[in-house]
Write a structure and sequence with these properties.
This protein is mostly beta strands.
Length: 119
């Protein structure tokens, strides 16, 4: 419940990392709870996640995964919506692994419409 969600990308034009979104857990939970009332995109999304590495030491872990989200519109036309990697920090609390920070680092920098939900 203390974790953070981030979306970041590297901007070659400015030669720097860009932070597009940063929300603490409570704020993100509220956004997700209200999403169905506000989402108008009729398309379906498919998340493909490929774990690359996990490093565990005692009660902390770091994980790296590649991901791609495919968006299929109501007519059945599919396209890659976004691609990148998840760089995650986790903590073990009361025997459970929890996100300390779930960070989406994007390769895609030009996003299509309807990009108001977490990836």
């Amino acid at each position: 419940e203390d974790g953070t969600y981030e979306i970041r990308a590297y901007g070659p034009e400015i030669r720097a990392d860009m932070e597009w979104w940063r929300s603490p857990y409570a704020e993100l939970a509220g956004i997700l709870k209200e999403a169905r009332d506000h989402v108008r995109d009729p398309a379906r999304r498919l998340h493909l996640v490929s774990p690359v590495s996990v490093e565990i030491s005692a009660d902390r872990a770091e994980a790296l995964s590649h991901f791609q989200i495919t968006r299929t519109d109501p007519d059945g036309v599919s396209s890659i919506y976004v691609a990148g990697r998840y760089v995650d920090s986790l903590v073990k609390a009361n025997g459970r692994w929890l996100y300390d920070c779930h960070r989406a680092v994007l390769d895609t920098r030009m996003l299509d419409s309807f990009t108001h939900l977490p990836l």
